[in-house]
Amino acid sequence: MNACEKKQLQINACKVRMGAVEGVYCAKSGHPGGSLSAADIFTYLYFKEMHIDPKDPKNPDRDRFVLSKGHCAPGLYAALALRGYFSMDELKTLRHIGAMLQGHPDMKGTPGIDMSSGSLGQGISAACGMAKAAKMDGKDYRVYTLLGDGECEEGQVWEAAMFAGHQKLDNLCVIVDFNGLQIDGPISEVAGPEPFDKKFEAFGFDVQVIDGHDFDALEAAFNHAKTVKGKPSAIICKTVKGKGVSYMENQVGWHGTAPNTEQYEVAKNELCAQLSELEAE
Amino acid sequence: MAEMVKKATRESFGMALTELARENPDVVVLDADLAAATKTGIFKKEFPDRFIDCGIAECNMIGIAAGLATCGKIPFAASFAMFSAGRAFEQVRNSVGYPKLNVKIAGSHAGISTGEDGATHQCCEDIALMRTIPGMVVLNPSDHYEMIAAVKAAAKHQGPVYIRLGRLAVESINNNDDYHFELGKGITLRDGKDITIVATGLMVSEAVKAAKALEAEGVDARVINIHTIKPLDKELIVKAAKETGRIVTVEEHNIIGGLGEAVAAAVCEECPVPVTRIGVNDVYGHSGPAVDLLKEFGLCADHIAEVVKDVLKK
Known about the structure:
The structure holds two protein chains of two kinds. Chain A is of the alpha/beta class.
């Protein structure tokens, strides 16, 4: 990608972060930490990688995305809104009674959501089913799914990985948001789900480990994944939980806590400053 | 008149899937290393490219089925009831039920008649689990012909369906020309005015036998076959309550959460009459030949007739 394109992705990622934080603030609950760590991944997928059309969200030939770590819906919703699936104003109604944007993704009511998710470990299985359907029908769409690193403690993740490897689902791309933290603490202290690369390799995946905040690295990894034949891809993205909001970065406590008004103003100002800087360059 | 056959409903299920797949290219079948037992192997033989063996990983199988359904397939995912409805309950609830996906879940080897495998495999809770999921249709066919009809109806219905399959070969009772299967509609197999026996699955034939024996003793028992436990045919059951005043339910399932409780709830709200539940009395089963176990647990015509007589004495 050229410098201009990269800049635009960075600007969009900043707007996704602002939308995610605004949604969680307005909801007075939700998960900012993982939404922010995955913001660059959401942005790359929806603004560069996937073949999608916000005006035709049910097109049978579209690429699919399953947010297996469904609690990071605020980040995904912000990316979908920015991409034009629905208005940015919707983000303010997140988790409200009667709102379209549920606490976890609901495919029945939200344009652009390809699978309901939220119960950890289940999204990757559905993604495998979608990829298998493409193979059965001879279609060439690709399926992307984003897992949390803590989520990889669920046994079902590895049942699905076994399935994907065995079925040679080379149209499936599993992304792990490796931010190192889960609700009870660092993943290495809670249950030790690492190593991710060796585990996915053992299940027959092509594995890449990259910096999940570097758009050049994301581009190289996703482009490589498309060239892999006969095996599924895993892209382990090393990320910073809470990325972009100084006081949230690498703090376990911001996994599932909403900022109060004062904290929200700080976050908004920080993100606005980042955006201005990007736009001024 | 259709031929009288003695077949396990799991075998009828495998045959029905194969028949269905010839007409409908969207039908795909998943299993979890039990194709020989659930009889999806019959389908696999004719349609190997539309059969997916997920290995011994039932939770993933349900998720795979959900993903296939989002792409327009009509997946039938089969395993033992203990695993498809039991182990994978939460996957069925969250990945299939909540998004209202068009997945059909089959649970074979349900109930005590699983036999020698013993308590770990004798699932007597599947109906209870599946009927608590909003929007889930719960089917429990009583014989070969009903299973064939139920599989077709399940495929036609848009949304999640649970189908219970039995291991034990049973004689057909629905091999008559005017047999008609309609989702959510019970079938009155025998009219009667003294009491109503409401039965489901393999217990329907036992209920019919019990009613015949009771007739000889001057008791006029109505028999209703409930193949669809959810949505329940409340109208037919309330009518029976009004007309016969007493109900006995029979199911090869825990008396907690199954047909008996569903019938009792329906009757309570509309026309309270005594409802006596015959089933597995909140205990685990154990190993043994299926027919002997059914007798031991009171899931046979003799015991049904005795209970009916006791109820009528009260």
